[in-house]
Specification:
single chain; 303 residues; alpha/beta; 2 domains; 5 strands
């Protein structure tokens, strides 16, 4: 079902993309490295993207040791409704279409913490880099997203809820989403999709903490040769994926303390306390008023 939705979405994106270009709704700014399409009011943003693109490209090539020998198109959209028509999840702020070497950005969200156009562009370009060197059929969604979050300082495709950790909650309840359930895509429900992004980032971070950056790159190199993720992890890290996943679950549980759980429910706790204080204050006022009326019934009669 997810695959069918993805194919349909891809078709919608390409059709909408072609219509917009034919209608002349977007202006273009291009050089030998990148082509930027933008709505008229975003010319300054297009120039910014053109200016920072070479540095981002070099940084990614240095990180992975792979050449990014492609010329992507970056579509900057200022109309939130138009962007919403292209996505499955309303939390999405940008996404990549590897088959077309296309990056689409909702520029209205680029001023929201923690997003910047630089980190967002780096994240989406990382997706294009991975798919350029690794067959998309063997690249699991969790690894694709986890690696790109790591490479772009934790930035994801979606607006992450910074107030709470769904991963800590899952650890306390034992309700992790298994990685094999995140092979082809992520769930669409808000809490589940946020957990999927957190898990992807956390698992890649776990690999790096145990085997270093070199360990992660060895896994990717194996996959570049056409090896499945299970075989790549076994060959590169001498550890089965299932064992590594269980170790990661245990490490998350150990880090999850009562304090972190309380911090997760902090807003609910504060709201409940304020409600109780309000009720207490109301009862106190009523008790005082009743006591006053009992002490001076005549005054209360004519008040």
């Amino acid at each position: 079902m997810v695959k069918k939705k993805t194919i349909l979405l891809f078709a919608i994106i390409i059709i909408s993309y072609a219509k917009c270009l034919c209608a002349g709704e977007f202006h273009a700014l291009e050089n030998k490295d990148v082509k930027i399409l933008f709505e008229p009011k975003l010319e300054w943003a297009a120039k910014e993207v053109a200016g920072i693109y070479p540095e981002i490209k070099i940084a990614l090539e240095d990180t992975f040791g792979w050449d990014l020998n492609l010329r992507p198109s970056v579509l900057l959209i200022k109309d939130r409704n138009r962007f919403q028509n292209l996505i499955l999840n309303p939390l999405t702020v940008a996404f990549a279409v590897p088959k077309s070497n296309l990056i689409i950005v909702d520029y209205t969200k680029m001023t929201l913490h923690p997003f910047t156009i630089e980190n967002t562009l780096k994240h989406e370009l990382c997706h294009l880099l991975l798919h350029h060197h690794i067959n998309g059929h063997i690249l699991p969604r969790w690894l694709d997203e986890g690696v790109c979050q790591w490479a772009s300082d934790g930035i994801a495709d979606i607006i992450m809820d910074q107030k709470r950790s769904y991963l800590n909650k899952a650890a306390s309840r034992g309700t992790f989403i298994q990685l094999n359930a995140l092979q082809k895509g992520f769930p669409q429900e808000k809490e589940s999709v946020l957990l999927a992004y957190e898990e992807s980032k956390s698992f890649v971070a776990h690999i790096i903490s145990r085997f270093g950056k070199e360990g992660l790159l060895k896994v990717l190199e194996q996959m570049k040769k056409g090896v499945s993720v299970d075989a790549a992890i076994r060959k590169a890290l001498s550890t089965p994926l299932g064992v590594l996943e269980r170790e990661w679950h245990q490490s998350i549980r150990k880090k999850t303390t009562w304090f972190t759980l309380l911090s997760y429910y902090l807003y609910e706790i504060l709201f409940a306390l304020m409600a109780l204080l309000s009720i207490f204050a109301f009862i106190k006022i009523m008790i005082k008023k009743r006591a006053y009326m009992q002490e001076d019934p005549e005054d209360s009669l004519f008040s």
